[in-house]
Design goal:
Length: 145
């Protein structure tokens, strides 16, 4: 595409976007229908993923869409579980001196797990997350209500 064609396309797109919605439908109905069709297919695809993903999650505990970033999915589930456990737990491991200390650690490491998918390991301090993994593996058999 030459520079003049690119500039012309850019100018026409800006003109189209600046028009009121009713004017767009009257002057360029094919273009508007193409946009609506594109958005509907996206909504349909997202609905399919949501429905199919929910069904698969209820049947096997994960969906095929969770496997794309399985580490993020597991970190989210573990993090939210630790945060919920901090609110509902009734006991604590013998290594802890108080119930409040156990709840505080559950919250701390739960937040670390929840933050992992949002920040990713590149931005995330690796030691910060490895401490959370170490906590999880150390107290795995104490994670009950």
């Amino acid at each position: 595409m030459t520079t003049s064609n690119w500039e012309d396309l850019k100018r026409r797109t800006e003109e189209f976007n600046s028009k009121p919605l009713l004017v767009k439908w009257i002057t360029e109905p094919k273009r508007m229908l193409a946009r609506v069709n594109s958005r509907l297919s996206t909504i349909k695809l997202n609905f399919k993923r949501l429905f199919l993903g929910s069904f698969q999650r209820s049947y096997r505990g994960f969906s095929k869409y969770d496997l794309w970033n399985f580490d993020s999915y597991l970190a989210t589930v573990i993090g939210k579980g630790l945060l919920q456990l901090a609110e509902t737990t009734h006991g604590y491991p013998p290594e802890y001196h108080s119930f409040e200390e156990w709840q505080e650690d559950l919250r701390e490491y739960g937040h670390r797990f929840v933050l992992y998918p949002q920040l990713g390991l590149t931005m995330f301090d690796e030691k910060y997350f490895k401490d959370a993994l170490n906590f999880f593996s150390t107290y795995f058999f104490h994670l009950w209500d």
